[in-house]
Hints:
Helix content: 40-55%
Oligomer: single chain
Mean pLDDT: 90
Low-confidence stretches: none
Radius of gyration: 22 Å
Number of strands: 10
Strand order of the largest sheet: 3-2-4-1-5
Shape: globular
Amino acid sequence: MLTFIPTPIGNPQDITIRAMKLFEKAELFLCEDTRETKKLLKLLEERFAMKYPDADFISFNEHNGQERLEAYGEMLSDKNVVYVSDAGMPVISDPGQILVEYCQENGVEYDVLPGPSAVTTAYAASGFSEGKFLFYAFLPHKGKERAAALAEAMDNGFNTVLYESPHRLEKLLEEIVAADENRELFLAKELSKKYQRYYRGSAKELNEKLKNETIRGEWVVVISAKKSSEKSLSFSEVLSLDLPPKPKAKLLSMLSGRSVKEWYQELINT
């Protein structure tokens, strides 16, 4: 069978006994990066006396996933196979998703172990009292797609969790300040690692604070829900409005990354 095994997001002591036992028995490792997986296994062997597995190691990522399934798919039912991402919970914002789909479509037995996740760790640390939140992973890098995704993340009515790389964090903060400088944020840097840091405050405050610091490591950003008494229409509500195609297309364009022309054509063709 295939087992999805979470790996520590920073501190190797966060590995579970169950995960190490499955590592020892594994015959085939599917890895987001084989070098990172072998480094982790060697560390577990040295620090926690885990037996280093006698197994094959195959890279499995968003670029070669389908090709790997064609070559190794049949082995998923015949061998003890594990899938690991570089850090954290497999499948969540991770190429392992296509493995889950393959198992479901082909009747392959699989299991997912519970374990470390930057999403839930950061949200628990944020102190935001609402139990509900949305996870948006990484935003598009640029253009209309990024602007539309960020607008949706900020105005969806829920606390929202994002991932961000160090070289784009400053840009993200500036974008949030431009949209709503008073929006409360929580930032978590390098979770569970030596240089872990938490920051909480308004977008304006944190943007100014971090301009004086060197931004390194991986970040999780929690955006508080918009507090407003104003009623705003959702995407689905706009679609259902009884309006002529032209004004409806303009509204839909404002809520998405698609042009007025594209929406107009779609509306008149439906």
